[in-house]
Amino acid sequence: MNICDLIYKKRNNGKLTEEEIRFAVSSYVSGGVADYQMSAMLMAMFIRGIDKAETFALTKAMVESGKVCDLSRIEGPKIDKHSTGGVGDGTSLVIAPLAACAGIIVPMMAGRSLGHTGGTLDKLESIRGFRVNISETQYKKQLQKLGVAMISQTQNLAPADKKMYALRDVTATVDSIPLIAASIMSKKIAEGADGLVLDVKTGTGAFIQKKEDCEELAKLMVEIGENCSKKMDALITDMSQPLGNCVGNALEVKQAINVLKSTGPKDFTDLVLTLTSRMLILGKVEKDIQRAKARLKKLLNSGAALEKFREIIIAQKGDPRVIDKPDKYLPKAAGKCPLAAKNAGFINSINTREIGLASVLIGAGRTKKEDKIDTGAGFVIYKKLGDYVKKNEPLARMHYNHSKNVEEAKNRFINAYSITENKGSYPPLIYSEIS
Amino acid sequence: MNICDLIYKKRNNGKLTEEEIRFAVSSYVSGGVADYQMSAMLMAMFIRGIDKAETFALTKAMVESGKVCDLSRIEGPKIDKHSTGGVGDGTSLVIAPLAACAGIIVPMMAGRSLGHTGGTLDKLESIRGFRVNISETQYKKQLQKLGVAMISQTQNLAPADKKMYALRDVTATVDSIPLIAASIMSKKIAEGADGLVLDVKTGTGAFIQKKEDCEELAKLMVEIGENCSKKMDALITDMSQPLGNCVGNALEVKQAINVLKSTGPKDFTDLVLTLTSRMLILGKVEKDIQRAKARLKKLLNSGAALEKFREIIIAQKGDPRVIDKPDKYLPKAAGKCPLAAKNAGFINSINTREIGLASVLIGAGRTKKEDKIDTGAGFVIYKKLGDYVKKNEPLARMHYNHSKNVEEAKNRFINAYSITENKGSYPPLIYSEIS
Asked: How far away is chain B from the Cα of A21, in angstroms, using its nearest Cα?
C-alpha cells in the first residue's frame, strides 16, 4: 500500500477502505507517512468528505494507535460526560461528584482551555495542590474507592489523534464535522468507559455555532460510539450566552461549590441535572428522567455531592478547605472593575465567543499551549439574555491581576452585548436530544 | 498575512489575490510556510481549482522566487521550444541547431528523463564529454557566438517551482492543469527568451493523454506566457506511438544526426519542420509557414544545420566525431535481440507509455532521480501504427547492456502492441494549433 495512491483516491472522491485508513493512520504515527502527506490527505478528506464507514474506520484507527484504558475490573456502570466546549461551562465540576454519589463510576479525562473556551483541568488546578496528572494505577484505585476521578488524559491515549489534530490546527482543516467527531470519539473510546453523554454546544460561544451542524455532529458521534459498543446519549444545548454567572477558573470553582450546595444559578443547575440524569439512565441506575432528577436534587440538598467533591479534592492532593471557605482559599484577583452598559434596554444577544476571548485577554485562558493561566482572573456576570439594564449599569464585574489588556478586554466584553429597546425571544437552554 | 487564513480561503472556494499568492510562495521558499501547509494549500488548489488570474499570479510568484535570466544584451529574436515530453521525442536535438541556422537565438534550457519519457540532457550526454552545466556567463557567450546553447537550468531558476513540484510529486497533486501550466511556464519565463513554441503531446505516451486536457493546458500556457509579454505558439501533437524509429539516448542522437542530414524518419522530420518554422514566425524571421519550411529544408539539405550541431558539440566540449561516425563514437549496447510480433495483422494501437517504461527497465531512463542512465540501451523500432506485420516478424530490436530486466522489458514492449486483422484509422501527427 502506498500513501500517494490513497491520497489520490480520496482526492478523486473515492471511498477509502478500513484497511487503507488504518494503513494511513498507523504509518503516520510510525513516521512512514510524512506530515505533508497527511496534511494533503486531511485536506482531501475535508473537501471531499468522508462517509460514515470511513469515519468509523478513522476513529478505530486512531483508538488503535495507542493504549485503550481497560476499566473492566472496576465494577459498576462507567459513564463519562463530554462537552464540546463553551464559556462558563463548569458543569463537569458538579456532574462528576454528583453522578458518582448516585452510583455511577465517572472515569473523567478532561481537557484544558482552548481558544475562547475554558477547560476543566485548568479550573481544577485553581484549587491549590490539585493534581490532574495521575498514574493509571492510581487512577483506577481512585475510581474503585471513590467512584470518580477527574484527570488529564493518560499517556499514549490515541496518539494519532493528537498528532493529526496538531496538524489540522495549522493547515485549516479543523472545522470538518466527521474529522471533529472522529477526533473527540477516538479519545473518549480509548478512555474505556461503557457509555458517554455528549453535550454539544450551539450558539455564539460554541466551536460549531449552527444548530444543524451541531445536530449532525451529535448524531455522528452517537453512531461512532454505538459502532464501538458504547452506550450513547447526546444533547444539543445553548451557548448563546455564558452558562451560569461566572467565567474564569477560580470563579467557576466557587460557583460549582454553590451549585453543589443547591445555591447556584438556575441555568447551570438545570443543565447539570439534565446531563447527570441522562448518565444515570445510560448506566441503568434510574429508568426515567424525572426520578433521576429528583434523586440528584436530593443529593445536592443533602450535601452528599459536595462531600464527594471534597473527597475528590483530598484524593487528588488539593486543598479541601476551598469547600467551606472558597473566598479564603481560592486564588483572587487584585483588581475589580464594573463593565457598564453603553445604553439602556433589554439584553438582546451576546457574542459569547467575544466574552471568552475577553477572558483570554486577562489571562483566564490561553493564546498558546505554553501560556500560563491566571486562575484568579475572570468575569462575574450580572446581566443575561432578556434582562433589562439601565445605561451605565454594570453588566458584569471584571476580576484581573495585570493591567496589560484590561482596556481591550473591557471593550470587548461590553461590545459583545447587544442591547435593544424591546424584549426579544431567547433560545431555550436545551434544544434537542440525539440518541 | 497568515498562511492558515489563505488555506482556509482556498479550501472554501475563495479566490486568492496576487498578493496572497506571492506571500504563500515566497514564505514557502524562505521557510516561513512549512511543507505540510503548502501541501494542504496545493491540495485545496487542486480540488477547488485556481482561475486564470490565480494561475498568472502563481506563475509570476514562482518566477520571482529566483533569478530571471537576462538575455536582453544578446541581439536577435530569442525563441525556445518546449515539449511536454514523450517517447522517442528527440526533436530538440535537431530543432536547436536548425533554428539557429535560420537566425533564431535558441536559449534552450532542457530537462532530463522523467518517468516513461526521455530527456534532452540525457541524450546530449551520450556524446562523450558533452557538458550541459555551464556558467551563465559562458552560456551567454555561446548564445552570442553560435546563436544556440543547450544546457541544464541555471542555478536559482524558479526555486519555488522546484520545491513545490517535489512536494506535489509525493502528495498526489501533480496532474492539475493549472498547476502544471504554472510550473512549466515559470521556468520558461525565468529563462528569459522572448518567445516560446510549445509542443503539447497527447496520446498513450503523453503525461496528459486526453486531447481536450492537452488543449486546455496549451491554451492556458499560451495565456500565461502572453500575460508575461512572451510571444507564444502551441501545437498539440501525437504521442500515441513513439516519434521516429528510436527510443534510447545514443540511438536518438544517431537518429537526430540522420534527420540533420535529411535522411531521418518522416514523422520526426515533419514535426521538426513544423515546430521550427513556428519559431521562425514567432521570431519574425519568416512571415509564413510554407516559406519557413522551405528555408529549413534547404538548411538540412545543405548540411548547414548539421554543421551547427557540430559547433554546439565543440563549444560544449563534446566529441564532434560523432557527427561523421556516430556508430563508432556513440555508446553502444553489448546485446541486441529482436522483439517478435505475437500474431499477424496491422498495428492497431501502441501503449506508448509501456514502451517508455520498457526502456526504463533496460536503463535508458530513470526510476529515481539518482539513477544512472545507460546511454547505449534502447529500441530501434521497425513497425508503427498501420504497418502490417507477420507472426514472429520483429516489431523492433532491443539494445541492452545488462541482462537484468531484459525479459520483462521484452514482454512489456511486445504486449504494448495491439495487432488486429483489419487496418484501422490512425491519428494525425499534428492535431491543432493554439496561439
From this structure: 16
**For strand A345-350 and strand A417-420, is the pairing parallel, antiparallel, or unpaired?**
antiparallel
Structure letter (DSSP) for residue A259:
H
DSSP-derived pairing of the beta strands A195-202 and A231-238: parallel
Whole-angstrom Cα distance, residue B266 to residue B349?
Answer: 19
> What is the amino acid identity at position B178?
P
How far apart, in whole angstroms, are the C-alpha atoms of residue A132 and residue A142?
A: 12
d(CA B101, CA A168): 57
Only one residue has cell 522572448, namely B194
- Predicted local distance difference test score (pLDDT) of residue A368: 80
Q: Give pLDDT tens digits for B301-352.
A: 999 999 999 999 999 999 999 999 999 999 999 999 999 999 999 999 999 9
Alpha-carbon distance of B112 to B92, in angstroms, equals: 12
- Please tell me chain A's helix, strand, coil percentages from 3-state DSSP, rounded to the nearest 5: 45, 15, 35
Strand-pairing partners, residue A333, are: none
Show Cβ contacts of residue A349 under 8 Å, excluding neighbours closer than 6 positions: A204, A240, A385, A417, A418, A424
A413: amino acid identity, one letter:
F
Give the largest Cα separation in chain A, rounded.
68
* Residue B94: closest CA among B239, B270, B324, B222: B270
State the complex-level ipTM. Answer: 0.89
Element (H, E) at B374: none
Residues contacting residue A289 through CB under 8 Å, at least 6 positions apart = A274, A277, A278, A281
Asked if B399 is an active-site residue, the reply is no
Closest chain B C-alpha to A33 CA, distance in angstroms = 10
Residue B375, φ and ψ in degrees, nearest 5: -70, -20
A324 has pLDDT over 90: yes
Q: Identify the sign of the CA torsion A243, A249, A251, A255.
A: positive
pLDDT at B273 over 70: yes
Give the pLDDT score at B304: 98
Residue B402 is a catalytic residue: no
**Which one, of A280, A291, A293, lies nearest residue A81 by Cα?**
A280
Question: Shortest CB distance from A36 goes to which of B35, B47, B48?
Answer: B35
Indicate which residue of B113, B183, B240, B277 is catalytic. B183
With a cut of 80, say whether residue A435 has pLDDT above it.
Answer: no
